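Dissemination and training. As part of the outreach component of the grant, students in the summer workshop were shown how a complex can be specified as a set of sequence lines and then modelled as a single object. The example used during the hands-on session is reproduced here so that future cohorts can follow it. Participants entered these lines:
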Amino acid sequence: MIQKVELPSTMEGKTVLVAGAAGFVPSYVSEFYLNLGAKVIGLDNFITGSRSNIELLSKYDLFEFHECNIYESMPDFSQTKIDYIFSLASPASPIDFKEIPLEIMRVNSEGTMHLLELAKEKKARFLEASTSEVYGDPEIHPQREEYVGCVNPIGPRSCYDEAKRFAEAMTMAYHRRYGVDTRIIRIFNTYGPRMRPDDGRVIPNFINQAMSGSDVTVYGDGSQTRSFCYVTDLVNAIHNVMFSKEHTPFNCGNADEYTILETAETVMKFLNSDSKIVYKGLPEDDPKRRRPNMDKLQSVSDYAPQVSFEEGIKRTAEYFKSMQK
Ligand SMILES: NC(=O)c1ccc[n+]([C@@H]2O[C@H](COP(=O)([O-])OP(=O)(O)OC[C@H]3O[C@@H](n4cnc5c(N)ncnc54)[C@H](O)[C@@H]3O)[C@@H](O)[C@H]2O)c1
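and obtained this result:
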């Protein structure tokens, strides 16, 4: 029987370390804990993150930043108290899989190990950001946490999928071997402002194509499905998992499922776009269906997504528009 989540009313006096703080999701996680009164220490080497996110976080007095590659060397934290560690540093877009596969594998293995060592030394609670990609091209639907996945270990996505599976395995090993207080989340497609407009993921692609009136590119026949979570809803899920009592993985996302064709049409409708849909070949190992079963997190917490798809798409489109000014 899993125990219920008890959320803290404040994080004042606590120190939270966020690896990957300049990135899309991690910048929201950092902001969330700064707003709860915590001191936040951010680490990033800017391989896919943005300096503007660090400028934004630097407006908070309790934010401290170290530029570093976490698989090469960590800052000296010998005199620093750390209570919570979020292991969020990893490129996550399919365009990165082709360009920086070894960096992805190293940050999720050696980088994660450095963070786990720090958690062990500081007796900090540690959360690993894994991914729905650990399920690969799933044979069961929707995906429950017990499902062990169907991943091609040598395919073009394997640098990411297998690295995250390794990161999960190492997190459980530190928990079992050293008693580190660990948590694991499996994030399903998340979108929102601060994504890179050109990062190759489906929502930024569709929004930018729809806004500019150029062709909207659907890969395959568009019948493959995805579930999309707005970023602030994801942060709420992450917070609930960090304060759960459970060490095994939680799916984190939004269970509403759309075909890719529906997604393209919906984005075009929300943005009043008269773009045309064009079809291109499906990439190798592209998962056919993706939808989280959210029962586990919902059975221990009040987590429920708050931001509708329409609202989320409009906010993200506004952000991309503001970047063009
Ligand atoms: N966004 C999603 O839909 C999604 C889905 C599943 C999992 N995730 C996971 O969530 C986390 C954040 O993803 P995101 O979408 O915000 O990606 P992102 O690329 O915007 O953020 C990752 C950050 O990590 C930094 N980083 C990468 N390697 C590093 C290294 N060696 N040393 C220091 N910093 C490093 C990058 O510069 C970047 O700022 C990742 O672990 C990702 O795998 C995200």
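Residues 15-191+231-255+291-306 form a domain with the Rossmann fold fold (CATH 3.40.50.720). Students were then asked to discuss how this feature might be tested experimentally.
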